Structure formats: C-alpha cells, structure tokens
C-alpha cells in the first residue's frame, strides 16, 4: 500500500475502537490499538498494547514503543471513553473526576504525547471522537456531555495551534449506535433511589437505552473515520448517526434555546 499509515486507536478492545481499528487494518494500514489491560493482538492483525489514558506514564511508554518499532506515528484516533448516568446534583467528586479524567483529560494527555513527534515530522492527523452529546447536552448524562463539550473546545483551539506544523485535527460526533456502550454504562445508585429524581431518571434512561439499541450500525462510523484517515484534506467536523439526530444537531445553532430545551425535555419524557 503506497500510502500506508502508522495509526494508533485508543480504546480499541471493544465497541467503536475495535471495529475502527480492524477496518483500518483491513485497508492496509499498520494499526496499534490500546486497552487498559494486557490484550493479545487481534486475529485481523491489530497490534494491541496496554495503555491507560488516565496514566501519563503508560501513555508515553506506549507511544515510545510505536516510535521505536515504526519510526513515526501518522494518525491518532482518540476513542477511549466512559459514561456515567445520574442527576448532576447528586454526582460525587469521584464520579465527576472519573468521567472528565477519562473522556477529556485522557484525550489531552494522548495529544500532548504525540504532538512533538508530529511537529518534528511536519505532518500528522489527530481524530478526536466526541459525540452529538457534545453538541446537545443530554439530561442525566450531564458530565458525559460536559466532557464532550470540553473535547469540542479543545479540538477547535488545537486545530488552529497545530495547523502551522502540518497537523490536522478532526472531530467526529456520533449519535446513537448499536455498541456495548449501553451495557457498560455506569448508573448512579443515588439517583435511582432519590425520591425526586428517581422516577424521571428511570423514564429518561429507558428512552436513551431504546434509542441506543435501535441506533446505527457502528461500521458506518468506522468507515467515516477511515475516510478521514485517508483524506488529504479531511473535514474538521463530522456529525454521524441516525438521520434525525444528525439533523437536530446541525440546526441547533439556528434555533431558539427555549425551543431546543422543549424538544429535549419532550423527547426524554421530562415533565
């Protein structure tokens, strides 16, 4: 393959990351995937390495291994992430820190680790997986949305700062897809038991989980990421998912806030 790239995909042991890493490998690239635990290389040939995005030392160790073996790193797909559901008022400091440290700070740590190599090479591409929840805040997913809003702002600023060095930054904003994210979501016991929030929370979560179970095929997202990887001039922002969600995310900025809030409350059955 003439334009074979050296690619790192974080959070590649399951879900979006696993599917994306496999498709990139199938397309002829050399792909490294990360997992918090020691994991064998995949049958497709994705080279799995241990890396925890909340641990700076493990990030540098993983990046150093790739540079040592390949001499360069062309593209990074920042996919690692977690989710917690519950009322914002009831979230503990530990829950908030865990959510933000993984989804936002983890991404910034990876970027800071790879940027020196990309600057030296005079080129590179970083694809940050955000969410439609980083465009439209989702009730009872508040700190997940906050982490993704942070990813959005960081990526916009980094796109300008990295541009003079030939480094391109991309944002991918998925809506609902059929992955194991639903099963792996952490749910706040305090919110479930709460006399004021409990019933509304359960009703809202039922809507969220049904939408996720009926979501788009994750291969659609993987193909979108592959397109960005292989594009000479990739789009900065890619919103992808069920048609209605994509349309709502795109028109949000031109609609009155009161109307947006009404639609969100109605959709998630909050009254």
From TrEMBL:
CDD domains cross-referenced by the UniProt entry: 17beta-HSD-like_SDR_c (cd05374)
Query: Which positions, given as ranges, span the membrane?
Result: none
Question: Pfam families recorded for this chain?
Answer: adh_short (PF00106)
The alphabetized UniProt keywords are:
Oxidoreductase
PROSITE patterns per record: ADH_SHORT
Gene3D superfamilies, per database record: NAD(P)-binding Rossmann-like Domain (3.40.50.720)
**Family from the record:** Belongs to the short-chain dehydrogenases/reductases (SDR) family.
Q: What is this protein called?
A: SDR family oxidoreductase
Q: Which organism is it from?
A: Parabacteroides hominis
């Amino acid at each position: 393959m003439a334009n074979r790239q050296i690619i790192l995909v974080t959070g590649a042991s399951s879900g979006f990351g696993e599917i994306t890493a496999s498709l990139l490998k199938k397309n002829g690239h050399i792909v490294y995937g990360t997992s918090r635990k020691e994991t064998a290389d995949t049958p497709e040939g994705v080279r799995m390495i241990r890396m925890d995005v909340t641990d700076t030392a493990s990030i540098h160790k993983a990046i150093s291994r790739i540079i040592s073996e390949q001499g360069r790193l062309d593209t990074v797909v920042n996919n690692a992430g977690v989710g917690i559901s519950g009322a914002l008022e009831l979230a503990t400091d530990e829950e908030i820190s865990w959510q933000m440290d993984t989804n936002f700070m983890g991404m910034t740590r990876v970027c800071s680790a790879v940027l020196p190599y990309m600057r030296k090479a005079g080129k590179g591409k970083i694809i940050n997986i955000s969410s439609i929840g980083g465009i439209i805040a989702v009730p009872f997913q508040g700190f997940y949305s906050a982490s993704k809003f942070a990813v959005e702002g960081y990526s916009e600023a980094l796109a300008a700062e990295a541009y003079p060095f030939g480094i391109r930054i991309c944002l991918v904003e998925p809506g609902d897809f059929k992955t194991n994210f639903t099963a792996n979501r952490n749910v706040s016991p305090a919110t479930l038991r709460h006399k004021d929030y409990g019933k509304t929370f359960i009703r809202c979560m039922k809507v969220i989980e049904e939408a996720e179970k009926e979501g788009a095929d994750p291969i659609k997202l993987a193909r979108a990421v592959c397109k960005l990887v292989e594009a000479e001039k990739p789009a900065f922002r890619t919103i992808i998912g069920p048609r209605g969600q994509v349309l709502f995310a795109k028109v949000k900025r031109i609609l009155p806030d009161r109307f947006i809030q009404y639609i969100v409350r109605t959709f998630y059955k909050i009254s």
